[in-house]
Write a structure and sequence with these properties.
The radius of gyration is 21 Å and the shape is globular. The strands form three sheets. The chain has a six-stranded mixed β-sheet with strand order 10-9-8-11-12-13, with helices on both faces. The protein is an alpha/beta fold.
Length: about 375
């Protein structure tokens, strides 16, 4: 049986690449006699650049002026590329955009759409391929698909009615996504956990970059936006625990908080930071997820625009009341710190059900 996964795997985003890895590897490890690969697809808004000579020259000049930043970006990109090449099974053929992936029709026995915000076409230049509209021969399965928001577009509603109705199995990462689809086509989708929860903790421990030289004690900040909530949480932790701060910043606002910022961080470095941190401070879904997996104490700050999936995860561990507001000025650490060791067991049933759903959906 040949299985193809369509998800966000090429963007150099820590959460995206780790969830893609997890779904790919879990299937390879648990489905006998299968060839499972991530389809090397780039959506419409990420196609190969055809820059002219002048644009290329301007980019070169920019790299020379900002040489240090360029060098760090290059190292980061190399770490992501090495992880993809060495840890994941990627299809040998690359497809650029909705037109090219039509050539993929008939190649796979099973197509899996998921996970991440793949149903959100505003992120992909309105690519419809993540709805698997290019192949009506394969068995279609969604795993932990997400819109990432409550309000969807008219085109997304049309795709749900036209394409998701053809899926043999539908599952979503948030209850809200399942509800949207049920309201439109009357099909009840299952709520499952993000693929990173499918993998055993020991697997993630084995992927940490142990060559990093780190302080014995430190707080780790993984920020997808720099809000007052996260800035004040960092300040409170630093003052209360007297910890050095290590930062991985996905917001683009560098030097917004004081600390040692790693602009070269790849997937294996990210895992190491969370594994060894005394406390994690994050407004990221996957920052929250891996804090739970590694059984860390952490502070979870709301994201101003993409908070649905974080809220949903916190509800599953009965900790939604501990989330810090985006603009919080007065962070009460004693009331807000989540100790994963005390709540992770609340996910065990959902983890088990998520695994059962995936195994049943992929049964020949």
């Amino acid at each position: 049986m040949k299985i193809g996964i369509l998800t966000f795997h090429k963007v150099n985003n820590l959460g995206a690449i780790l969830q893609a890895f997890a779904l790919n590897k879990y299937i390879e490890m648990h489905i006998n006699n299968c060839n499972c690969e991530v389809i090397d697809f780039t959506p419409n808004n990420a196609n190969v650049s055809n820059d002219g000579l002048l644009i290329k020259m301007l980019k070169l000049i920019k790299h020379l002026i900002f040489w240090r930043q360029y060098k760090n970006d290059r190292k980061r990109n190399e770490r992501f590329e090495a992880f993809r090449n060495n840890r994941m099974t990627i299809s040998p053929v690359t497809y650029h955009g909705d037109e090219e992936i039509k050539k993929c029709s008939g190649v796979y026995d099973v197509l899996i759409s998921g996970s991440d915000q793949i149903l959100n076409i505003t992120l992909t230049g309105e690519s419809t391929s993540f709805y698997l509209d290019f192949d009506d021969k394969a068995k279609k399965v969604s795993y932990a698909s997400s819109f990432g928001r409550m309000d969807i577009t008219d085109k997304e509603k049309e795709l749900i009615r036209k394409e998701l109705i053809k899926f043999r199995f539908l599952s979503f990462r948030e209850k809200s996504g399942a509800q949207i689809v049920q309201n439109l086509i009357g099909v009840e989708g299952k709520e499952v956990l993000d693929p990173v929860f499918l993998m055993e903790r020991k697997c993630w421990l084995g992927l940490c970059n142990n060559e990093l030289i780190l302080p014995k004690r430190f707080a780790f900040v993984y920020a997808m936006e720099m809000t007052d909530g996260i800035k004040n949480a960092v300040l409170e932790v630093k003052n209360r625990f007297n910890l050095p701060i290590i930062i991985v910043n996905g917001s683009g606002q560098h030097n917004a908080i004081k600390g040692d910022e790693d602009t070269t961080c790849g997937p294996m470095e990210f895992l190491r930071y969370i594994r060894d941190a005394e406390i994690v401070i994050t407004n990221s879904f996957h920052g929250t997820a891996f804090s739970l997996i590694f059984e860390k104490k952490f502070l979870c700050i709301a994201h101003s625009k993409r908070n649905v999936r974080i809220e949903n995860l916190l509800k599953n561990i009965y900790s939604q009341d501990k989330q810090i507001d985006v603009d919080c000025k007065n962070v009460l650490l004693n009331e807000c710190i989540i100790d994963s060791r005390l709540v992770i067991f609340r996910l065990n049933e959902m983890i088990s059900n998520s695994k059962k759903y995936l195994m049943y959906a992929l049964k020949p």
